Amino acid sequence: MTLIDTRTPNPDYFIAGATGDWEMVIGLEIHAQVSSQSKLFSPSSTEFGQPPNSNVSFVDAAMPGMLPVINEECVRQAIRTGLGLKAQINKRSLFDRKNYFYPDLPQGYQISQFKDPIVGEGEVHLDMGEKIGTVTIGIERLHLEQDAGKSIHDQHPNMSFVDLNRSGVALMEIVSKPDIRSSAEARAYITKLRTIMRYLGTCDGNMEQGSLRADINVSVRKPGGEFGTRCEIKNVNSLRFAGQAIEYEARRQIDVLEDGGEIAQQTRLYDPKSGKTRSMRSKEEAHDYRYFPDPDLLPLEFDQALIDELAADLPELPDEKQARLVAEYGITVYDASVLIADRKSADFYENVAKSGDKKRDGKLSANWVINDLSGRLAKEGLDIASSPVSAEQLGGIIDLISGGEISGKIAKDLFEIVWSEGGNPAELVESRGMKQVSDTGAIEKIVGEIIAANPDQVAKVKDKPSMVGWFVGQVMKASQGKANPQAVNKILRDKLGL
Ligand code: ADP
Ligand code: MG
C-alpha cells in the first residue's frame, strides 16, 4: 500500500512533547461479522451463544477431504457494504490461503483475500463538530475472510479447550487508509462504519459479542512530516478502549522517540485494567504467511447486473438521510448527525416533525427528540422503539407549544404525565387546566399583587431594569407556570414604568 497524506495538519490535534508538537496517524482494520444465517463456506449456523462446538460442520472442523462452498449471501452482503462505502466493487476477486498455526484454526490456514479483494477503494465521512468540520477517511479495501475458533483457557486448571462455533463464520475486513488523526476521529470512524452497516443490515455491529473488532495502527510524527513506524493494537472491542489505547500508545511512542529511541514495528495488546498497551510479538510481514490462491475455490466472479440489483435495493444511507433532514426540516448538520446515528431515532424524529402533510417546527421537534426524549429514555435504559411517549403524542405536545397553548415549562410537565400515564396531550391540557393564561385581565391582577407585596424590589428595578426578570419569575410562580411569558413581560414593563 502506498501511503499518501490526504490531511492538512490540524493544531487542535497536536500533542505537546519536550521537543515540540507531535501528530498521531491512525489506520484501522475493522473485522465485521457478516449478518448471515450460515458460515462463509459451510451450512453451519452462525447463531451466537450456542453450546460450545454445536455449530460445527466437517468443513469448519477441517476434516480431510472436505471442500468449501461459497455462501452467496455473504458475497451479496460484502457487495452491499462496498456500495455503502461508495467503493469500487471488483467483479473478479480471489480467495487465498493465509497459513499459520493456532489451536483454534484446525485448517492450519485461514481462507482470506489478499491481492484481489472483492471491494477496493471507498470513503467514509465523519462529522467532527463545528470547529473541525466534516472529514473524509479513505477506505483502502474490504475483503471477505473466515473467522477462527476460540481457545478457552480459564475453565480447567491444566487443560485448554477449543470452541469451533466461530470457526468459518464470515468476516468483512475493512481497511482504512492512514487518514485518521485523533482518538476522537477513530471512535467516530468506528461508529460511522457501524451505523452504515446497521442501515444496510450487513453487520449487527455488536461489539460486546465480538461482531465488530478493531485492529488499530498508530504512529506519531512531527506535524505534516514523514509517516512514522506504526504499532498495531489487536482486537479492540469497545469504543472506549479504542480511545484509551490510542492515547496511551501515541504518548508511549512520543516518549520513546524523545528519549532518542526508535519504534519497533510491533503487534501490541491493550490491557483495559492497566490502561496500557504491551508488546505481543514483533510484526509479521505478509510473506511470513505464504499466501497462495486457495486451490479448492474458483475465483469469485459476478456481473454488473448483480451489483445493479443490489444497488437498486439499498436503503437511504446515513449521509443521504442527514442531508435530507437538514434540507427538509431546517435543522443543523449537527442535530441531523445525532438523529441519523440510529435509524430508529431518525424515523421517530420524522414522525414527530411530520404528520401526514402537516409539518411541525423542525428545530423544536429535534430538540425534544434529542434532549428531552433521548435523555429520559437513557435514564430508564430504554430503546426509542419502546418509548412510552409515541411520536404522535410528542407531536401533539409540540403542537400545543407552537400554538401558544402551553409554555415550554408546562410542556415538560405534560411530557412527564404522558410518559407515565399515557393519554392525548390536548385532552390532558384541557382536563387538567394546564392551558397557558393569555387573558390580560388575569395576568394584570397577579402583577398588581406582586408589585404591591414587594415595594423594596419595585424601588430597585427603576435603577436596574434587568431586575424585571425577578418579577417575571414571581408572576410565573404565582400562576403555576401557566401565564404567557410574553404577556407577563409586557404588562410588568407597563406597570413598572420601564
Ligand atoms: P497489515 O495486515 O500488515 O496490518 P494492512 O495493509 O492490512 O497491513 O493494514 C495496514 C493498516 O495500517 C491500514 O489501516 C493502514 O492505513 C495503516 N497504516 C499504514 N501505515 C501506517 C502508519 N505509518 N501509521 C499509522 N497507520 C498506518
Ligand atoms: Mg493488520
Structure description:
Helix content is 39%, strand content 19%. With 498 residues, it is α+β, with helices and mostly antiparallel strands. It folds into 3 domains: 300 residues, no CATH class; 116 residues, no CATH class; 57 residues, Arc Repressor Mutant, subunit A, CATH 1.10.10. Strand 1 and strand 2 form a beta hairpin. Helix 6 runs parallel beside helix 8, helix 7 crosses helix 9 and helix 13 crosses helix 16. The radius of gyration is 30 Å and the shape is elongated. Magnesium ion (MG) binds next to loops.
Based on the model shown, name its key terms.
single chain; binds adenosine-5'-diphosphate; 498 residues; elongated; 9-stranded mixed β-sheet; 3 domains; alpha+beta; Arc Repressor Mutant, subunit A; 3-stranded antiparallel β-sheet; binds magnesium ion
- Average pLDDT rating: 94
Helix content: 25-40%
Bound molecules: adenosine-5'-diphosphate, magnesium ion
The tally of strands reads 18
Share of β-strand residues: 15-25%
Structural class: alpha+beta
Low-confidence stretches: none
- The N- to C-terminal Cα distance equals 72 Å
Q: Rounded to an integer, what's the Rg over CA atoms? A: 30 Å
Overall structural domain count: 3
Shape: elongated
Number of helices: 16
Q: Major beta sheet, specifics?
A: 9 strands, mixed
